[in-house]
Each structure stands twice: as structure tokens, then as C-alpha cells.
Amino acid sequence: MRTAILAPALALLALAACSSTPSVNVINNNLGPRAAADAAAAAPARSAAPVTRFDGDWGLNFTSNPSRAQQCPPPPTREVILAVNQGRAELQMGKTYTGMVNEGGEVRIADRLDRSIAILGSFQGERFVGEFRNGTCSYAVSGRKR
To answer: What is the mean pLDDT of residues 14-26?
Structure first.
């Protein structure tokens, strides 16, 4: 009987303790202005705006990387266009591949349906350098802004 009375009381005490736990913002505000500023400076900054300095059409060329494991299909013989608009990269090669360009000019372009990474690369001024993976086959990718 004693246990039946104590159990609900303990549950209520635990619930009250959880609801009175201060949030991180309250804790930061209680640290003082200097400590709160230091905590805010340590947090990574996120840009809400898309990275647009790499926007435009990029002509990409593919070169086979040697593979001893299997016979890989030949790379495209013509230049393939990588379109970047508002920081969103899109490449069409039989499938549609998409990705976002980050502040450093790095991009991961993945298959729209299964999200497997197809191209991993970076924009370097007016050049693009990366690698295209198709299963176990690998291709070097290089290109220039058109």
C-alpha cells in the first residue's frame, strides 16, 4: 500500500523536475554577456542565402580512371553541361543528378532517385575538378565555366 502511494508521488516529482530544467538559451543568458557572446561565436555560422558565385553553365569532360577489377563503360565522348543556378547544381547524363554548392565551392552531386553520390568535386575559380563514380567505376572530371 505504501508503494502504491509513493509511486505516483515520485512520478509527479520527476515530471516537475523535468519541466523546470532551464533551456540552453536560459543557461547562456544566465552566464552573463561575455560568456553568452563567446558561446555564440563558437557556434558555426550558417548562411541562409545560396552560394551564387559559381552559378552558370560548366562544360565537363570525363576521363576513365583505370580499373583492374572490371571492365568499365567508356566515358562520355562529348562535353557534358553542369548547370548551377542559385547554388543548386544539376547534371543530366541519362539520369538527373543534383546537389548544392557550399561556401568553399565544394559540391556533392547525387542521383535524384537513389541519392547515391555520383560526383564529388570543387569549383576553383573558373575551373571544376572532381570525380564521377558509377558503381565501382571511377572517372576523373574536369571542366571550365562556359
So the answer is: 41
